[in-house]
Amino acid sequence: MTTLPPLAGRRCAHPVNLLHATLFFSPDLDAEFKGLGIEDTSAIRLATRSAPLGAVGAGTVAAAFYNYEHAFLARHLPAVWETASPAAVLDARLRAVDATYRRLLGDEAVASAEMAEAAELALRAAEACTRHARPLYSGNADLPVPDAPHLRLWHAATLLREHRGDGHVAALLSAGLDPVEALASHTATGKGMAPRWVLGTRGWGRADWDAAVARLTERGLLDAEGELTEAGTALREALEVETDRLDAAPYAHLGAAGTARLTELAKGFLVTAAGAGAFPAGLTGKG
User: Fold this and answer.
1) pTM of the entire structure?
2) What is the rounded distance in angstroms from the CA atom of residue 150 to the CA atom of residue 135?
3) Is residue 285 part of a domain?
4) What confidence tier does 286 reach under pLDDT thresholds 50, 70, 90?
5) Which of 75, 100, 188, 255 is at 20 to 30 A from 108, Cα to Cα?
6) What b/e string do you get for 241-280 counting C-beta neighbours within 10 Å, with b at 16 or more?
7) Which residues fall within 8 angstroms of residue 67, CB to CB, at 6 or more apart?
8) Can you give the residue range of the structural domain that contains 29?
9) Number of folded domains in the chain?
């Protein structure tokens, strides 16, 4: 392993994560699941992400996903597996990735040497990921690596995203932030999902959100206007630093040059995807 420039891993993880996340906003995913007989948007997204864990119920997903409300999960899990098996869901999500990347990036980019290079760099980084205490990474790591370069890139991006996410959950627990406090404090940074998106996708109600804001204010992490205080800003940065530490191995394994090149390629693909409408307006921010 090699020493990387400061924040190199975090800067690489960001565009790689967003390339993974394009799937969850894709109409191609909805179309694939409708073919399986599943039309509820929440059920589609929950099944898509949890399928590598098997036919799990709400309890397992609440633990692994961290910031979803249990009763909300229980409305969809494990019932969704009665309509489509995890294996069928995994096949559907790869078909949706194929359609999504072709629609957002174009067939030329999908078949490009840069796509193949990005895939191999991301897979090489993922070689250094570890399984212990990382359920979502480990479940995805048990899946076969696809053959097509663009599907290989998405698979590797998923491994890297879930590896970092599993570590971030550990950091949240250490910081003493419960699920809604974690969401509200992230939104307060201006980089997290807007409240309406959080409430619409995680199952929490406005009263849950307001109560979390009140707790954060009492702890001195938010001010009366709901902005991060100096202590709140320091806590959020400490969370990212700890997440970086827990997620350092893949990028150290890839090396400084490889990490820089993967960052460059991922950013290029992400700019194209975003320009093609990969993400809805108003997804992030405080409003």
Assistant:
1) 0.97
2) 24
3) no
4) confident
5) 255
6) ebbbebbbbbbbbbbeebbbbbbebbbebbeebeeeebee
7) 179, 180, 182, 183, 202
8) 8-275
9) 1
